[in-house]
């Protein structure tokens, strides 16, 4: 049940796997230790201090294992719902493997699980998120794009009633295409790649204007936007149409996802949206329940943007209030299945998390956001760029009950599929003309698989 192409591994020096495993992950862990030390220095209670010092010591051990390329040991049983899944996978496939020769996807996820273990085995710091400060801070520095969207979308979405039915549908289609791109490019602000960004850099990544979007559509190398619109229209014709988002990053990307989900609901294209987040800190910027709550509450009650006008702040508050109301009414539901924080790819979702697969198979459309989810969908292997998306995602397209799946992903790592029959040539040309095109986040894919009825 595996694809015929080899998975990327840390020792593949030509791939981003190598830079990540040898340099990026130790840097990220170093920053996590700095954050925890800062928290330690703010504590007064002796028991808590001693407990946190032990967490820092465990992080130092993890640093030794990672930078010394030690073998992967089982995860300590910390009563988390995912331990059994982790240790089963290690025992079955990765016994004796180390950080560099295990598949990159697995080794990288394992590092985040080990980081969580440093805290989950403590008494007072089980829920501590070493990336929380950074996530909140980046959102607070995204004011320009945040208010651009809130000023436009705080007012509930309305289509001019004097338009003909065909004109209304066209207006809706254009809005759908624009907001799908807002949601897509919201994925470029990923903190694991952009440590220490300036406000100017954040602004450049987040510009959401119409002209900008027209220009960026040509950077969507595999583009199923047209088919996606057709699928979404079908969801509307059902009563109780449900759309799911397998989330990626907190802060600005989550905010864009919510703007998009709000539109899908208001336009009647869906009647319920389910959001899937992580149970603990994951790949630096991924959404946890705390990040979700923080965003909604900061929009309504926060004082993050001292330079904003009253009108801007009011627009953000209204948007936040509406979203909180959706949550109360059950129109928006936040979930966190343990499978999302394991090392398995989604080729194993149906067999390792059958309850989750069944749950997703009841959705009318499942959006997978971001690079990591794309790597997991495609097994993170060296498939040719011309490989059709539904072949690349294997059982997530071919198993009975596979839902319609869309990947909205800015390209930040090696695996690239779904570029069409000329895709191999496109990839070769970009390799020559723009080395680094696979990690810059400048390019993207919007890929759809129709799924298979159960
Ligand atoms: O460390 C590499 C990686 O997993 C890449 O997939 C990507 O560069 C980043 O981390 C996560 O990106 P995203 O937040 O879009 O999943
Ligand atoms: Mg992420």
From TrEMBL:
Ranges for the Damage-control phosphatase ARMT1-like metal-binding domain?
20-422
Q: EC number(s) per UniProt? A: 3.1.3.-
Q: List GO BP terms, alphabetically.
A: DNA damage response; intracellular phosphate ion homeostasis
Q: Which domain of life is it from?
A: Eukaryota
Manganese found in the keyword field: yes
UniProt keyword list: Hydrolase, Manganese, Metal-binding
Write down any Gene Ontology CC term.
nucleus
Which cofactor(s) are needed, names only? Mn(2+); Ni(2+)
Described purpose of this protein according to its UniProt entry: Metal-dependent phosphatase that shows phosphatase activity against several substrates, including fructose-1-phosphate and fructose-6-phosphate. Its preference for fructose-1-phosphate, a strong glycating agent that causes DNA damage rather than a canonical yeast metabolite, suggests a damage-control function in hexose phosphate metabolism.
Q: What is this protein called?
A: Sugar phosphate phosphatase
Species this protein is from: Mycena indigotica
């Amino acid at each position: 049940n595996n694809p015929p192409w080899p998975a990327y591994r840390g020792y593949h020096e030509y791939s981003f796997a190598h830079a990540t495993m040898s340099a990026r992950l130790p840097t990220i862990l170093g920053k996590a230790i700095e954050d925890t030390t800062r928290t330690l220095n703010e504590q007064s209670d002796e028991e808590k201090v001693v407990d946190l010092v032990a967490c820092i010591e465990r992080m130092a051990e993890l640093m030794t294992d990672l930078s010394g390329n030690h073998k992967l040991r089982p995860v300590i049983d910390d009563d988390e719902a995912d331990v059994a899944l982790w240790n089963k996978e290690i025992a079955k496939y990765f016994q004796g493997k180390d950080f560099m020769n295990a598949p990159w996807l697995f080794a990288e996820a394992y590092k985040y699980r080990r980081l969580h273990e440093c805290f989950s085995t403590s008494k007072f710091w089980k829920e501590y998120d070493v990336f929380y400060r950074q996530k909140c801070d980046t959102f607070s520095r995204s004011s320009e794009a945040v208010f651009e969207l809130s000023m436009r979308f705080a007012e509930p979405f309305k289509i001019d009633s004097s338009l003909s039915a065909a004109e209304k549908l066209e207006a809706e289609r254009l809005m759908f295409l624009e907001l799908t791109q807002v949601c897509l490019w919201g994925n470029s602000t990923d903190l694991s790649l952009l440590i220490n960004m300036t406000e100017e850099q954040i602004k450049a990544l987040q510009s959401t204007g119409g002209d900008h979007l027209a220009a960026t559509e040509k950077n969507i190398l595999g583009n199923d936007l047209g088919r996606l619109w057709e699928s979404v229209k079908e969801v509307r014709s059902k009563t109780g149409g449900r759309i799911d988002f397998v989330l990626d990053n907190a802060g600005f990307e989550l905010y864009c996802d919510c703007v998009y989900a709000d539109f899908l609901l208001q336009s009647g294209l869906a009647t319920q949206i389910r959001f899937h987040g992580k149970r603990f800190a994951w790949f630096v910027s991924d959404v946890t329940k705390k990040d979700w709550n923080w965003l909604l509450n900061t929009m309504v009650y926060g004082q993050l943007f001292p330079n904003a006008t009253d009108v801007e702040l009011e627009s953000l508050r209204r948007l936040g209030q509406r979203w909180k109301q959706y949550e109360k009414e059950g129109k928006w539901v936040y979930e966190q299945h343990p499978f999302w924080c394991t090392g398995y790819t989604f080729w194993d979702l149906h067999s390792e998390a059958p309850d989750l697969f069944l749950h997703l198979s009841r959705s009318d459309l499942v959006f997978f956001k971001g690079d990591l989810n794309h790597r997991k969908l495609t097994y993170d292997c060296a498939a040719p760029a011309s490989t059709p998306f539904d072949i690349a995602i294997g059982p997530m397209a071919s198993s009975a009950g596979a839902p319609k799946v869309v990947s909205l992903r800015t390209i930040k790592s090696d695996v690239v599929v779904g570029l069409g029959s000329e895709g191999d040539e496109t990839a070769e040309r970009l390799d020559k003309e723009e080395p680094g095109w696979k990690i810059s986040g400048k390019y993207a894919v919007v890929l759809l698989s129709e799924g298979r009825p159960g």
